[in-house]
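Forwarding the complex inputs:
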Amino acid sequence: MSKDIKISAKGVDVFYGDTHAIKNVNVDIEDKAVTAFIGPSGCGKSTFLRCINRMNDTIDICRVTGDILLENEDIYAKSVDPVQLRARVGMVFQKPNPFPKSIYDNVAYGPTIHGLAKNKSELDEIVEQSLRRAAIWDEVKDRLHQPGTGLSGGQQQRLCIGRAIATAPEVLLMDEPCSALDPIATAQVEELIDELRASYTVVIVTHSMQQAARVSQKTAFFHLGEVVEYGDTDKIFTNPEDSRTESYITGRIG
Amino acid sequence: MLTLTFFAVLALALAFFLAGRSRALSIVGGEVRNLHSRPNFHGTLALLLSAISGITVLLLVGMLWSAWIESSLLAQISASHPDLSAIEAELVLSDAYAIANSGIASKTDELRIAMSQQVTRTSALHQWGTIAAALIATLMAGAWALGKISPDWRARNRSETIIRRILMLTAVIAVLTTVGIVMSLIFETINFFNNIDWQIHKFLFGTTWSPLSGVQAGKLDPDKVGAIPLFAGTLMITVIAMLVAVPIGLLSAVYLSDFASPKLRAWAKPMLELLAGIPTVVYGFFAAITLAPFIRNSGESIGLTIASESALAAGIVMGIMIIPFISSLSDDVINAVPQSLRDGSYGLGATKAETIRQVVLPAALPGIVSAVLLGISRAVGETMIVVMAAGQGANLTANPLEAVTTVTVQIVMLITGDTEASTAAGPAFTLGFTLFCVTLLMNIAAQRVVRKYRELYD
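Prediction (whole assembly, two chains):
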């Protein structure tokens, strides 16, 4: 089955100062699907993920060349405002990073700054919907006005996912979202990712091969700044074409 | 001589250290494992015991003996001249000491010369006696320590106990000094309130401050010690200072931490902190000579009459002085806000301004509040700038263009004035105590806030 292409990267190179972190990456990411980036630490998968919503702009020495197209529009074009781009391409980080505000304010932050709600009741509605979709509503509905930093690690991460959803992005980037979580919280987040696939394009960086196999439809294997192999998850894990991919997924390099 | 003795005691103690160490080694024939304590500890114990006994004897014998000499000389004076009062007898004695040490005496007569000869005789004996006692004590303690050395002798535990006590002693000295200062403040405050017949409300709420004009036979007039004008002046200048320092300090901290390039930050921050190194007296004459005339002239050009000394000038300069405190501390706490929070906000499509205003500043708020509180306690306690630029008249006014005075300035006026110290000290110490209470409360509040802040991120 052939799906629409949401994001298309063509010949992307990234430099940190003199370090060549990403080398000539070409990846087409499908709409309404989960794409996983796997590979050993330091191989550039997080760096590439951060290119998709221009988070690397905040790092002075970082330089990106090549084209990344979001719905056929170059996101590095001069006319694109990174602030607007990030509203369309949301991000969930490795470590849960709730703001030191109440749970409610954490979720309401994005919709408020983007003016997504006309009044208080609409905002309440957005907050509830986002928390429900992040599968955390039942746990926090009675303490919406307590600080988000008081939640457990898994709850904090789901809160951060809810916060990202509340801004109504088209693409959700997740940078090792489960690396700080225990197996139960991980299972909850994975289930959530599977549900999010219906409405969003999800790109997830993970160190866990099992996780990539469980949640994704497409997988890209990064090694030393290059995409070694990119294709259907089933194929990558059962019948990889490149010997390096096979070595990695069987645990021989990494 | 006594200083030399002190060093002699230390040298002896050092010799005992070396002797103790080698004796411990030789007792076990070089087999250190057979010793309970390593040779260095045996040496240390000998050093500590000999040095402590020597110095203690030096101080104790020296002081007790000279006190004894003095009292016996005084007894002689009053026996031969019963008509002299106690104070006069002491004067004779101090003159005798002066003559004996070829200093300048108030008067030279037969009695004084006779006494000075006595002083010369006894002081030589006193000096040599003290030195001998100190050296003997050192040698005895050292020898005892050396004699005790055996494989089972617990020199380590003993020397560690002694060192622990010395550490405790230094801590106690620091604490006792603080307690002593506070106690003297409290006693003088009580004295002062006694002096005004416990009409504390007249001090706290009275509006006329002129304490020395109402003195009669050492008694203060309770109606003239109203400190409200001073509190009001302090408050006004502090408010003006904070109005200058908080916006400039905070905004410059935001600029330095989130907008400035690393290069700019590398030289701008030290430059800003340089402001904190300028002596306040320099700020004071800057305020008095440069800023105050400028304010007066610019006021006149728009038809305002402004005193040449004004709360405004003092407050503005004090604010400039406090800027580095606020900006530097705020910059530190703003930098301490984790990058992950900023990333989280940027990742939601927030602009830099939104991120700083809604995420970074609220997260750093506790630290900023404590920086502001520390700035306020600086402003409340500041003296030099106000003495020079705000005036000395205790006006009760709400107009920042007039001269006002502050608590600290009045303390300076009272203590440096030519009024008898016992009268002036009362109001001065009471003001000092009030100031102490205020700054103490501020510091406690600031520390509380800082602690709360730490709990949030650790």
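The first helix of chain A runs from residue 45 to 52.
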